[in-house]
Amino acid sequence: MNDTSHAGGAASLDVSIASKDYHSASGWPLRALEDLRLTLPAGKAGAVVGPSGCGKTTLLRLIAGLDKDYVGRIALPEHGRLGMVFQEPRLLPWRSVIDNIRIAAPHAREEDIAALLDELGLAAHGSHFPRELSLGLARRVALARALAVKPDLLLLDEPLVSLDAALAEALREMIARLIDERRITTLIVTHDLGEAIALGDRIFLLSPRPARVVATIDVPTPRGQLGKEAAEKIEAQARAVYQGENSHQGKSSPR
Amino acid sequence: MIRFASLAALLLLWQIGASLSDPHRLPGPVAVFEKIYEEAVSGALFSNLAITLARVAAAFALAMSFGAAIGYAMGRNRLADRLLDPWVVTLLNLPALVVIVLAYVWAGLTEVAAIGAVALNKLPNAIVVVREGARALDPHLEDMAEVFRFSPAARFKDLVLPQLAPYLAAATRSGLSLVWKIVLVVELLGRSNGVGFEINMAFQLFDMKLLLAYALPFVALMLGVETFLVQPLERHVSRWRRGVSRRLDRV
Ligand SMILES: Nc1ncnc2c1ncn2[C@@H]1O[C@H](COP(=O)(O)OP(=O)(O)OP(=O)(O)O)[C@@H](O)[C@H]1O
Ligand SMILES: [Mg+2]
Q: Is-contact A107 A41, C-beta < 8 A?
């Protein structure tokens, strides 16, 4: 039983999942998500933080409508045009960079695509094929593709993972600038709290699998000017939540 | 250059063999080329080659289009796979000759029976190869296409076809060489024109010059199609694997 509807008004993204089970090969059900609730106002960026393998990608797949086998309810922003950057770039290897964007966003104007490539530092790579790109470049192409569709909701799955520190920093700043400028409702998944603090207006801390939101932290705005002290406070808060969570073995809900 | 030398060596061997044996069993290259010229001037050579080529094309197109559609369905749908797999296995193991004779018995010595029999011989192979390709379609890219709401046309052209292309190319390659050979048998058994028919005539008359005068241009035609049609097509569909854009950039 599930229901995807379009929510207007204040809460742009409203997720309330009672349970999501996978059916493993051995026949045992594997519970990935349980009683997971989160809401995100329109135009804001939410950052979902959780330990490796807790169910973050699963959550994004449900929101994206790629998996309808769950119990719960997900309300998407109005119109519900979706842009998504998957954990891997997932470009069409047989199409050039610019064609990859054109195919995913057939209604985008050529000059908008060119501007986007420019903004993401991809102007020189439009005619390259994906196999000629480094991971950092391929990620940016995937980001350009997601933005080209003018999404009402942008989903980013670990956009900075396995990039070296300098590249990750550059891409993080790029993403922060792009979603701020465009005021796109964005949900970013990450396992790195620092990344979440840098990118999110609201941080959702997930428990280990089965994932549940164990704490929701609103980051003071504007988040760009967040001082070191404030950031440390949030980190301490998160650490406390996870310690409490561990002592409960992730079973009960200390909220 | 090496290819040319190797071809010349073959001709030389042929000449030596011919001079050592009875000219009725193995005529020399000169006599055969004279015969080819003769058949060419009369027009018989070209019309027979053209008829055979047309049969190859028709049977191949039939087998590939049905094979691709059925193979895709079987690769994507478990029920279709389970339902049709025994049929495919049966057809795969049915000797070509049995299919041909049955087709001629049931549908008469007609063009439809001839082309249908050839197509039916190629069909299971096309199905199996394309099914393999359909099973190997990347689910990650499919999710991506779903999220970005690819149109059915884009899904086919930009997502499915490029992934199936290597399998279609493999089916084309193995399929053409199979179809070429079976068409001759079909012509030999039940048609009154085409290269297979002429070879049968030459056999009946024990005219080795005539036999080789048809066999050689036929082989040349096969090689020509392979080199100038199939291989360039294969290169075209797999061009993204090499750094094509780099070369375009420099232009
Ligand atoms: N299709 C599937 N079938 C069965 N189990 C699955 C499937 N997809 C994910 N899982 C399991 O569900 C759990 C959550 O997986 P998920 O990929 O959502 O985690 P994640 O938080 O994104 O992990 P990571 O940090 O590695 O990206 C894992 O234990 C995983 O093994
Ligand atoms: Mg993941």
A: no
Domain count, chain B: 1
Residue A233 identity: K
Nearest Cβ partner for A93 among B143, B240, B248: B240
Tokens linked to B139 = 């689910």
Asked whether A144 and A122 are in contact (CB, 8 A), the reply is: yes
**How do residues A89-133 score in pLDDT, each as one tens digit?**
999 999 999 999 999 999 999 999 999 999 999 999 999 999 999
Contact A94 B244 (CB under 8 A): no
The answer to whether residue B158 sits within a structural domain is yes
Contact indicator for A37, A108 with CB cutoff of 8 Å? no
The model's pLDDT over B199-230, given as tens digits with 9 standing for 90+, comes to 999 999 999 989 999 999 999 998 899 889 88
Interface predicted TM-score of the whole assembly (ipTM), two decimals: 0.86
pLDDT above 60 (res B247): no
Nearest to B147 among A84, A95, A103 (CB): A84
pLDDT category at B249 given cuts 50, 70, 90 is very low
Give the homologous superfamily in CATH for domain A2-81+154-249. Answer: P-loop containing nucleotide triphosphate hydrolases (3.40.50.300)
To which H or E segment does residue A189 belong?
A: strand A185-190
Q: What is the mean pLDDT of residues A37-58?
A: 92
Name all residues whose Cβ lies below 6 A of ligand 1: A 22, 24, 30, 32, 50, 52-58, 87, 191, 209
Determine, yes or no, domain membership for B12. no
Q: What is the CATH number of the domain that holds B94?
A: 1.10.3720.10
Query: Which residues constitute the domain of residue B167?
Result: 28-225
User: For chain A, which residues make up each domain, given as ranges?
Assistant: 2-81+154-249, 91-150
What is the per-residue pLDDT across B177-190, written as a single tens digit (0 to 9) for each? Answer: 899 899 999 999 98
Identify whether B231 is part of a domain.
Answer: no
Q: Do the bridges between strand A185-190 and strand A45-49 make them parallel or antiparallel, or are there none, so unpaired?
A: parallel
Q: Name the pTM for this structure.
A: 0.82
Q: How far is the CA of A80 from the centre of ligand 2 (A)?
A: 22
Residue B151 included in any domain: yes
Which chain B residue shows the shortest CA-CA distance from A98?
B245
A54 CA from centroid of ligand 2 (Å): 8
- Which of these, B154, B148, B122, lies nearest to B58 by C-alpha position? B122
